[in-house]
Write a structure and sequence with these properties.
heterodimer; A: 124 residues; mainly alpha; 3 helical TM bundles of succinate and fumarate reductases; 5 helices; 82% helix; globular; B: 234 residues; alpha+beta; Ubiquitin-like (UB roll); Fumarate Reductase Iron-sulfur Protein, Chain B, domain 2; 2 domains; 5-stranded mixed beta sheet; two-stranded antiparallel sheet; 7 strands; 15% strand
């Protein structure tokens, strides 16, 4: 008897973890976003014709490009942080500071890129 | 002050799913959440089920999710979580009754780490202690503090996704023996942790370290075990 072990996505996302948990979630969203981007790219080349043009339109859209840039940049910077901390476990004591540093790198880089992409997109 | 407590309830004899019941009680901001639960059980609803034993943060019985985060009810003051409190069972383990979960899978993983001192060498000549330096003792000092409350393991998204993962608490236990200079089974434990459900499943979400009521740097301990595994050096 008893309720079986079941942690749904919504329950998991509602857990109030610290900043590390947010980066964990965003890292997965980033990976998923890149997988979607590559899949759309391959499908567009493979199918061609009107469908190909339609799919091209999706990933050439400036809003989608901002999303993909977010995914790639966050995944890269966060991955770098994880790799460094894995190689130097003593630094894990400064995990919170490492995450702040990560945001300090990510926000300006992403902000500039998002501005440039959206300006080009809206100006076109 | 008035405290509003929303508690997850589940009666295995009558319910097919859990539900939340809200209680409004008078309390003090310096009360612990455990005091609030004791009051509700004693004065409002005797059927409320939860674990508690020492009530002083040593036995680790009363781990629960308080306002969405794993904590020990006996170490959490009302003033730290506010007058609106939601109390739920910890995640990733079967719910037996209200806030009580089945801890067997958690302890099964703990037992897999050979959580005992292994040394087949003869005793020192004086037949008494196996001595070690202060520095050697300091290497695993922190991980000796674990009280097996399961706050860390049940806050880990990798454990939520896969209950076969040994989990942070089991790895902390392994760390305590792996880095003990007197113990001789470090290689054996590292081999166990190198399995599919071992340390490779840790993706450094850091929930475990934040959830630990003993302030053990769990992610760091897991990182040290990972490094020992990679380099073969303890």
């Amino acid at each position: 008897m008893g309720l079986k072990r079941d942690v749904s996505l919504s329950v998991g996302l509602r857990y109030k973890g610290p900043s590390g948990y947010l980066t964990y979630i965003l890292h997965r969203i980033g990976g998923l976003g890149m997988a979607i981007f590559i899949s759309v790219h391959i499908l567009s080349a493979f199918l061609g014709g009107k469908t190909g043009v339609y799919l091209n339109g999706i990933y050439e859209n400036w809003a989608f490009q901002i999303f993909i840039f977010f995914c790639v940049l966050f995944h890269a910077i966060n991955g770098l942080r994880i790799t460094i901390l894995d190689l130097f476990p003593k630094l894990l004591e400064h995990q919170t500071e490492a995450i702040w540093l990560e945001w300090a790198e990510f926000i300006p880089l992403f902000g500039v890129a998002a501005y440039v992409i959206s300006s080009a997109g809206l100006g076109a | 002050m008035e405290i509003t407590v929303k508690i997850f309830r589940y009666n295995p004899e009558t319910d097919t799913r859990g539900n939340y019941v809200t209680y409004k009680i008078e309390g003090d901001e310096n009360d612990r959440v455990l005091d609030v639960l004791e009051y509700i059980k004693g004065m409002r609803d005797g059927t409320l089920a939860f674990r508690r034993s020492c009530a002083h943060g040593v036995c680790g019985s009363d781990a629960m999710r308080i306002n969405g985060r794993n904590m020990l009810a006996c170490k959490t003051l009302v003033r730290d979580v506010g007058a609106n409190i939601t109390v739920e069972p910890i995640l990733g383990l079967r719910i037996v009754n209200d806030l009580i979960v089945d801890m067997e899978p958690f302890f099964d993983n703990y037992k897999k780490m050979l959580p005992y001192f292994i040394n087949e060498s003869p005793l020192p000549e004086d037949g008494r202690e196996r001595l070690q330096t202060v520095e050697d003792r300091a290497r695993f000092d922190e991980t000796t503090k674990c009280i097996l409350c399961a706050c860390c393991t049940t806050s880990c998204p990798s454990y939520w996704a896969n209950g076969e993962y040994y989990g942070p608490a089991a790895i902390v236990t392994a760390h305590r023996f792996i880095f003990d200079s007197r113990d001789e089974a470090a290689d054996e434990r590292l081999q166990i942790l190198a399995e599919t459900d071992g340390v490779a499943r840790c993706h450094t979400a850091y929930n475990c370290t934040e959830a630990c009521p003993r302030e053990i740097k769990v992610t760091k301990a897991i990182g040290e075990v990972k490094m020992a595994m990679m380099t073969g050096k303890v």
